[in-house]
Amino acid sequence: MALIKKPMTGMKDILPKEMQIRDYLIGIIKETYSKFGFTSIETPAVENIANLSSKQGGENEKLIFKIMKRGEKLNLESASSEADLVDGGLRYDLTVPLVRFYSNNQASLPSPFKALQIGSVWRADRPQKGRFRQFYQCDIDILGEPTNLAEIELILATTTTLGRIGFKNFKIKINDRRILKAMAAYSGFAEESYDNVFIILDKMDKIGIEGVKEDLIANGYDAASVEKYVSLFDGIEKADNGLLYLADTIAEFLPDEAKDNLLEIIESVNGTKNCDFDIVFDPTLVRGMSYYTGTIFEIEVPEFGSSVGGGGRYDKMVGKFTGQETPACGFSIGFERIITILMDNNFEIPNQGNSIAFLVEKGIQSEMLCNIIKEAQKLREEGIKVLVVRMNKNKKFQKDNLIEQGYKEFKEFYKNPIVK
Fold first, then answer.
1. pTM
2. Could you report the per-residue pLDDT of 23-65, keeping only the tens digit for each?
3. What's an example GO BP annotation here (predicted)?
4. Does 91 show up as a binding residue in the annotation?
5. Residue among 130, 137, 168 nearest 339 (CA)
6. Which of 111, 187, 341, 407 is the most exposed place for a label (fewest CB within 10 A)?
């Protein structure tokens, strides 16, 4: 029986052309974020199952690739529950590993600590375009900064990076979990129902306000509360300044600093941005992770039609490891979705420099081959990319393939240059 050539469902092989774009993108990300003071770190792909299942990852905790115990620890005959079989799992995001890393190494790290982490994560999700079971995430986080300077720096670093890649006219949507809770409290929803109300609200872009209203009523919520809740969004849409209108309306339930926090972030970002994007208050923005405690934000790119990144503040997460709360805020770029957009638009890496392919005919004498390689080595030392390959019979097809790989110049070497 022949072995299976295709990768596992939801995972993919990456061909050279895409890999070049991925490497280029990672280079831009690292270079740009380093200028904002972010430091690269790395964490293991495998985390303790208790950390991954701590009810902080929302729906992602249902998608964990779990790892069985090994060696003598694994006893299938005596196992009576999953805990007897499983002790680890592949990370489903980079935030939980980062917080564990910070908690374990805090004494050796500066404060505030600005971390950059790029790496694979795994989710047993239903694959679709731009979404895989193994995929790259790219996170920047600031731990130890309690003020909204963290949010401002995260947004500016991320938007600067997107601008360098070539994105324009994108949108940063921003909200605050405290505003979401105040809206629900004002409308009369019980506190224990907030998470479910937010899950329904998060469908707004797909089912519209009427769909949200119908869904809330179908879930058994009081019609008067639902009507009061829905009316808030109608008032926001009609107001000259939706955030100020909302803050005034729900003032009894909303801390003043929540409104002031968002206003200052929006004003600061608008006053210092250096690429083409808008930052807008969006009261329907929820973000799925339950660990968010304050500001939340998301990137919307017209070419993709959905989010290509997001993040927020998670001030209570470090405390679950250390017992002492530490302010924390992060922003994640949807690396795979950005790659999808670039590939769909036939993106070409700019300023690749000179690249030459040496095509060497088979049967060429060793002395001549040695001289050819010496010439290639000299050009490489001068910073020129040189590929030395044997010449194929179908030279045109070979050159076409090399052109696709970025080679712009060719030099041909024959075993009998006088005849040829």
1. 0.88
2. 999 999 999 999 999 999 999 999 999 999 887 766 778 889 9
3. histidyl-tRNA aminoacylation
4. no
5. 130
6. 111
The response to whether 287 counts as a known ligand-binding position is yes
String of DSSP letters for 349-395: -S----EEEEEE-TT--HHHHHHHHHHHHHHHHTT-EEEEEEPPSSH
Taking the C-alpha atoms of residue 121 and residue 91, their distance in angstroms, rounded to an integer, is: 6
Residue 47 near residue 96 (C-beta atoms within 8 A): yes
The answer to whether 20 is a known ligand-binding residue is no
Rama region for 208: left / alpha / beta (φ>0; ψ in -120 to 50; rest): left
**pLDDT for the residue numbered 420:** 45
Does 291 carry a binding-site annotation? Answer: yes
What's the residue count for the chain? 420
- 3-state DSSP of 80-106: CCHHHCEEEEECCCCHHHHHHHHHHHH
Would the pLDDT of 203 be above 70?
Answer: yes
Cα–Cα distance between 339 and 301 in angstroms, integer? Answer: 13
Is residue 240 marked as binding? no
Domains in the chain, CATH or no CATH each: 14-181+257-343 (3.30.930.10), 353-411 (no CATH)
> 95 among the known binding-site residues?
yes
Rg of the chain, C-alpha, whole Å: 27
